Structure formats: C-alpha cells, structure tokens
Amino acid sequence: MRGFQGCSLLLCVVAAAAIPIVPWKVKCPLQCVCQIRPWYTPRSVYREAATVDCNDLFITAVPKDLPAGTQTLLLQSNNIARLEQSELDYLRNLTELDLSQNSFSNVWDFGLKSMPQLLSLHLEENRLAELPDCSFPGLGSLQELYLNHNQLRRIAPRAFTGLSSLLRLHLNSNLLRTVDSRWFQVLPSLEILMIGGNRVDAILDMNFRPLSNLRSLVLAGMNLREISDYALEGLRSLESLSFYDNKLVAVPKRALQRVPGLKFLDLNKNPLQRVRQSDFTNMLHLKELGLNNMEELVSIDKFALINLPELTKLDVTNNPKLSFIHPNAFHHLPQMETLMLNNNALSALHKQTVESLPNLQEISIHSNPIRCDCVIRWVNSTETRIRFIEPQSTLCAEPPDLKRRHIRDVPFREMTDRCLPLISTRSFPSRLEVMDGDNVSLHCRAMAEPDPEIYWVTPEGVKLIPYAHDGRYRVHPEGTLEIVGISEHEAGLYTCVAHNLLGADTKSITVLVNSSFPRSEASLELAVLDVQPYHILLSWKPHLNAVSSNLTWSSFLLSSSLDTTNVARIPLGTHTYNITRLHQDTEYWACLHVAFVDLQAKVACVNARTKEAIHHQRFLGDTQCLLTLLALGVLLLAAGLVARCGFGDEPRRAKDALWDMGAVHVVYPRLAQHWAQGPRGGPLLAVEVQAEPLDS
Ligand SMILES: *[C@@H]1O[C@H](CO)[C@@H](O)[C@H](O)[C@H]1NC(C)=O
Ligand SMILES: *[C@@H]1O[C@H](CO)[C@@H](O)[C@H](O)[C@H]1NC(C)=O
Ligand SMILES: *[C@@H]1O[C@H](CO)[C@@H](O)[C@H](O)[C@H]1NC(C)=O
Ligand SMILES: *[C@@H]1O[C@H](CO)[C@@H](O)[C@H](O)[C@H]1NC(C)=O
Ligand SMILES: *[C@@H]1O[C@H](CO)[C@@H](O)[C@H](O)[C@H]1NC(C)=O
Ligand SMILES: *[C@@H]1O[C@H](CO)[C@@H](O)[C@H](O)[C@H]1NC(C)=O
After folding, report:
1. 10 Å Cβ neighbour count for 138?
2. Architecture of domain 420-513
3. Cβ of 228 less than 6 Å from ligand 4
4. Is any ligand 5 atom within 6 A of the Cβ of residue 82?
5. Does the Cβ of 531 fall within 6 Å of ligand 5?
6. Ligand 6 atom with minimal separation from the 671 CA
7. Residue whose CA is closest, atom 2 of ligand 1?
8. How far apart are the C-alpha atoms of 234 and 237, rounded to whole Å?
9. pLDDT in tens, 283-316
10. Which of 272, 400, 431, 432 has the fewest Cβ atoms nearer than 10 Å?
11. CATH 2.60.40.10 fits 526-609, yes or no
C-alpha cells in the first residue's frame, strides 16, 4: 500500500514543485551552506526557513558563530558526541535541529536545557542506549522527536516528561523488549508513533491507552505473534495501523474491534494461513486493506470480509500459496472499487465474488495460474463494466490447449457451465514433517461449478466429513483438516477428495511424525456380505496408507465375443460396495486392487454366484437394456454422445445421460478414456461406473 511507505500518510509532506531555494546572505561558517529553504512544520504548514547546512563535514563540535537568525541547523553525518546549551543559546529562532548520524551515546551529553522554540529534533542513528527520566527538559514546544535507529534498550517511565506538545515520535529500530504505557502518559498530543523494528514479542492490554489523539501507529517488524484483545484500547482517533512484517498467524480481530475509526490497515508480510470467517467485520471506516506478501496464506474463506461500508481498495497480492477465494468471501462491501489479486496462486475467481461487489471498477488478476474453464467464464459472458489491469499478462495456464492464451481471447461461450473440481496444487504440500504433539492444519481447496464438497480420508481409511468431530480430527467446511496434537501412530497418508456431480479430484499428503511413517498392513481381504439375484454386497477391512483402490468384476458366462470387465474406482474412505444390476444365477468374480503410498500394490479377489430370480420376465428386459447401455456407454463415451435408452431420443452428452439413469454414472471423467487391462492380458473394454458406494 502506497500510504505506508516512507512518511506516514497523515502528515506526509507533499513534494511541492519548484519552490525556490535562495542564498541567505549572512556570514556563513566555513564549509557550511546558508540558504533560505522551503520548510514544513510537523503539521505540514509551508514556511521558509533560514537554513545552515553543515551536513557531512566530519566535524566533532558545533561550528561557532552561526548566524543569529538560523531557523534550521543541519548537522547530519558528523562526529559530534557532546553538545552544550551555551553552544546554541543565542539561536533564539532555531526551530529544527538535525543531529542524526552522529556519535551521541548518552542523553546527558546532549545538554539542551531550554529551547522553548524548537519544534523538531533529529537524533536518529546515534548510539543512545538508554533514556532516563526527564531526558528532554525545556523542550515544551517540541513537535517531532526522532530517536529511531539508536541502541535504546531502556526508556524510563518518565523519559518524555515535558514534551506535552509532541505530535510525532519515532522509536523504531532500537533494542526495546517492551512497550511501556507510562511513557505515553505525558504525551497527550501524540498523533504519530513509530515503534516498529524492536524485538517486542507481545503488545499488552492497554499499552497505548493514554494516546487518545494518536492517528497513526506503526508496529512493523516487531516479531509480534499475538495481539491481545485490549491491546489497542483507548486509541479513539486511530486512522492508520501497520502490522507489517510480524509473526501474526491470525487476524487480531478482537483488538481491531476496539479501534472503530480505522481507515488504513496493513497486515502485509505476516504468516497468516487463512483469512477466516468474519476476520474483518463491521469496520465502518476502513478504506484500504493490505494482505500482501504472505508466504503462508492459502485461502480467503467464506464471509471473511463482512460489512465494510467504506472499503474502496483491497490489496491481496504476491501470496505464493493463495489458491482460493471463496465465492462468498465478501459480503456488503458497497464501495469497493479496486480489487488487486495479481501474483497469487489463484486458478480462478468466482463469478459470485465479482457480483458481490456492486461498485467494482477494476480488477487485477494477472500472474495467476488461471484455469480457463467454466469458473472464469464470466470474464467473457456478459459485457463487463470491470476494467482488467494489465490484460496483456492475464493469461490462461490451463488447460494445455489454452495455455498462454489471453483470457480475453478464449471462446468461453462454447463452454458448458459445469466443470470438475481441481484441487489446487499449491494449497498443501505432498509431504510434511511434524513433531509429536504438533497441531497440524492441512488446507484443501478446490474451485468448480457447481461448488465442490470436500472430505478427507485418514491413513486408516476413515472418512472425515465437514463439521464432524472425530477425536483429534476436525474438518472445516472450506476443506481444512485440523489435527490437534498429532501422535506418531497418526502418521501416514492423508487424502483430500473434492467432488461435485461431474466428478472428483484427490490430492494426498504424507505426514511424518518424528520422522516415522507406519508400514502398510500385510494382508488384504475381500468378503462377500450379501448375495441377491441382482446384486452382491462386498466389504473389506480399511487398509493403511492406500492411495487408490479399484474394484473390478466380471462374469465369464456372459462374455461371448466381447469380454467385459467392469471397473469402479472406490472413493477413499469407502469400505463396502454394492455391485448392482447383475444377472441372476450367474457366477461373478470380483477383485479389489489397492495401491499403497510406498508403491506396493495388492489384490484380493472373491467369487460369488447370484441367486435365482423370481420375476423372470421383467428382470431379463431390464438387464438387456442395461447391458446395452453399459456397452453403449463405452462406445459413446468416446464419441461424446449417447442416445438415451427408452428415456427419449434427444442426443445428450454422455456424462449427463449416464447420470440421468440413476445409480450408474461416470466417476472421474478424466479417466474416462482409460482402457483397463484385463486379468488375462489382452485389452478389455472397461466401463468406469460407480454403483452406489454404501457409506458415502
Ligand atoms: C527571529 O524571528 C523574529 C520573528 O520572525 C524576527 O523578528 C527576528 O528578527 C528573528 N531574530 C533574528 C535574530 O533573526
Ligand atoms: C469474448 O471473446 C471473443 C473471442 O471469442 C472476443 O472477440 C470478445 O472480444 C470477448 N469479449 C469480451 C467482453 O472480452
Ligand atoms: C494445539 O491446539 C490446542 C487447542 O487449540 C492448544 O491448546 C495447544 O496449545 C496447541 N498446541 C500447540 C503445540 O500449538
Ligand atoms: C519426538 O521428537 C521430539 C523432539 O525431538 C521429542 O521431544 C519427543 O519426545 C519425540 N516423541 C516421541 C514419541 O518420540
Ligand atoms: C444394493 O443395491 C440393490 C439394488 O439397487 C438394493 O436393492 C439393495 O438394497 C442394496 N443393498 C444395500 C445394502 O444397500
Ligand atoms: C485403478 O484404475 C485406474 C484407472 O483405471 C488406474 O490408473 C489405477 O492404477 C488403478 N488402481 C489400482 C489400485 O489398481
């Protein structure tokens, strides 16, 4: 965010163009330059100041016989270590004194006892280590004090006594370990406080309470891990707040509720993983929010930003793992004009996200791995009022045939309005090493149309669905799996499944606890639970660390010239299977194929004979139609069309038609072209069907 760089946005000096610098015709000390220069008061009022510039001269003392009318005395980058009141006493009009980059190491060496006219004092980049009580006596008019980049370890509670006019205090980049609220009790006028760059781990409750006039607070680069709920209590006038470059893992939302006047908030460069539901709510004056350069940020969850009536700009850029913005991440942001989302890992931005921002004028989504499928179709579907920033670098990354095409040139109109979920590859790694007792959060996110549902499968094959609380496991509806206090026996392969009615995608992660990883179990057993004329019910024991499982079944009796093996991919976490639509009184052979994470594969097979049916006639009819369909399904999958058997004659897309038939539908369409190998070598026809897994 621009506003946070350099000077504070509140009292930022506007670079006034072409203000003349004129010579000041006085007796000027040797090597110094005397000029009338433009000068701004700490409240940004323009003035002209009689300036003596003795910067960069390697002098060790203040030059003698300075012009009596000197208003600004610049002594930056010298070697001065001591200063007496008498050396400056005669400069009755001195308003600014710059002693930065000198050698002061003790505040008593800096003997200013009474300079009631001084407004601005620069002592930055010296070697001050301590400020005792009453360090700055007799500076009752002082408005700006720069003490940054010293070696301050200790500041006495009453160090600033007497500075009742101070507006601006820079304490950043010192060696402070705490922030003491007593410092501020004598600074009732303070408007700007820079205290970043100190190794303060925590801001305590009420730390800034006396600062009721403070407008800008910079707490950057402090190693802050947590902001307590009442840390910002009392900052009634605060408009700008920066937590840039800290160690915050969550948005300090309760603390932020205590500063209702906030307009600018900078949370850049913090290790947040998610922006969660209502992290930013009811901040009625917030205008700009920055969430940039976050190495760990994966997701902006549902209703993350709610009721921010004055928010006009949101900057969420340069977050290498940010792969998901929930379609309903934003709610009631009526003034939002600019949405910056470039240089993230987003595969898409949902149409609903854009539609939820009624005043959106411009959007930046370039330099993201955009998948040019139906989710991003809105870009070209209607005449959008929204301007794209850098459209020439807004390119498709997927699918392969559209790679590097400009997103604006993609003929989206020819696309369907449904697409498969794809789990973002950057949302969680494929391997993770943790310590015994750690809390582990795995974020699985996928975008699709319709919105996908997500579940996780543990190494034991237990399926974990959102909201369910299963021991130490918890799955959040957006797809995050939390494991509280993981133990060694919970190490193993965890798999996320994202599915919608078109199909599913899965992605697994190997979690090692204290470097250990359990071995796969020895045996695989497949059991027949029930046999009926038209279906056989199978079940098996869950097996540790399975990557994928398939069930195949066939009957040799029915195969004449065309040998057909049915294959169903078993969703992870499923341990029983109802093979339906079989022939009565027929011998079947079924095998479960399981691939494990350590590249092992195992097979277990059973055979069973279906019972004889009672309603002979009807059954045969059904079966014939079905068999035709299954065979047809194969052929037509390739052709991409299927004529529906007995349900109507309009040609439909194969997937839809099969879906309509109820239980039998194609899963994993990405595998639809795959021809499985038969048990006896030669290629067989395979129909990928799923016949109602029971425990899904
Ligand atoms: C100090 O400033 C006042 C008011 O601007 C001016 O009248 C006076 O001459 C200045 N003093 C000197 C020594 O220049
Ligand atoms: C939509 O895509 C077509 C190319 O198929 C292009 O000619 C047209 O300008 C695009 N419309 C918008 C609004 O980007
Ligand atoms: C894990 O989370 C629990 C509950 O949220 C918390 O009490 C515990 O301190 C956390 N443990 C670690 C190692 O962070
Ligand atoms: C796991 O490793 C940590 C750190 O090395 C150690 O403190 C802990 O005792 C180990 N836990 C087990 C169960 O070995
Ligand atoms: C298996 O499928 C058949 C046919 O759809 C059904 O009648 C039967 O109830 C199912 N069995 C179980 C245990 O769900
Ligand atoms: C299951 O089938 C798919 C496609 O037919 C294949 O890629 C996969 O390797 C099979 N898995 C096992 C465990 O046989």
Report:
1. 15
2. Sandwich (2.60)
3. no
4. no
5. no
6. 4
7. 93
8. 9
9. 999 999 999 999 999 999 999 999 999 999 999 9
10. 400
11. yes
